[in-house]
Give the backbone structure.
Amino acid sequence: MSYIEFKGISKFYGENEVLKNMELSINKGELITLLGPSGCGKSTLLRCLSGLEEATKGTILLDGKDITHLEAAKRQMGMVFQKYSLFPNMTVKENIGFGLKVMKVDKKEIEEKTKKMIEIVGLEGKENQYPRQLSGGQQQRVALARAIITQPKVLLLDEPLSAIDALLRKKLQAQIRRIVKELGITTIFVTHDQDEAMVMSDRVYLFNNGKIEQFGTPVEMYTHPKTYFAARFMGNYNIVEGQDFNKLTNNNFKSKFIAIRPEVIEISTEKPSNEERQVVTFKTKVTDSISHGNVLRYTLEADNGMKLKGEVLFRSFRLYDIGQELYVTIEKKNCLEIDE
Ligand code: ADP
Ligand code: MG
C-alpha cells in the first residue's frame, strides 16, 4: 500500500467545489510535485493533508492510518511556504532548533542536530545571524532545515522558491532535491512552473481546476500528454486540428487534436525519401525565425494555413530565410493523438 493516499477528496468553500473527488497515491520516500496554474487547488490539497483545512468529503490515509480528521499538531508534517516564515527575533540556529525545543529535547542534542542540519543546508558561518541579515535563498534554506530537523513523516513545500530569482532558484531546486532524497523524506512540492516540476520530481500530478488532469514521471508527462490542457501546460507543443492535419498529410488520425513537440520536427530543403520510416511529410514556408539561446525556432506555414513551430539547435543546421520553402517531416509516433 502507498504511504499517503487521498481517496475521493472533495473540498467546498460554500458552493465552490475547489477539489473534486481527488485520488492520489504517494509512496514512501517519493518526491511528488503538484503542478498547475494558480487557483487550481494545489495549496488546498496540501492544507487538507497538513490539517490546516478539513476535506469536505473523502479520506486521507498516512501509513495506513486515517488522518482525515486528526488535529494538525498530531500529523507530524514539516512545512515550508513561499513567504519566509522565520522568527525574526531568533538567530539561524535558534530558528532551526525551535521544533526540538518545543518537543523538550535536551539542549546538547538540539545543539548537535542543529549543527548537522546547518551543514546539510550549507549555512555554516551563519549560525548566529538573524533572518534579516540573510538573502531570500538562505532564508528558505533555514526554513527547510527547521522543517526537517524534527524528522517529519511528510515534508510539504508550497511554492518555496517562487520569490527567488531564476539563477539561484535553479541551484536551490537541485539542492532541495538532493537533501530530501539523501534523507529519504517523503516530500510534496507545489509549483505552477512546469520546468521546476520536471527538475524536482519523481512524479508529477498535474491539476486543472480542482481535478487531476494527468500524472506520471516528468518524462512521461512531457513526452505523452494525454489531453489538450496537459500538452499546453507540460511543453511547448504545437496543437493542430486532427481533421486539418489528416487532409494535409493524407492520414487518418482519429483524435480531435494532434500535438507535436517543436523539437521533433525535421526540416529540409529537398523532399526526403523516407523509405524505411513511418513519417508524415509536407511542404511549408518559413514565416518567422527567433533565437532562444542555443535553439532556433522557426514558424512554418503549410499550404492550408496551418502553422507549426519547429526548433533546431544552432550548431547542427544552416539558417533558413523568411519566405523560404522547406519540407517538414515528422515521425508518426511523434504525432500524439489528444482529446479536449
Ligand atoms: P492554488 O494553490 O493552486 O493556487 P488554492 O488551493 O489556493 O489554489 O485555491 C483553490 C481555489 O480555492 C481558488 O479558487 C481559491 O480562490 C479558493 N480558496 C482557497 N482558499 C479559500 C478560502 N479560505 N475560502 C474561500 N475560497 C478559497
Ligand atoms: Mg497555492
About this structure: The two ends are 33 Å apart (CA to CA).
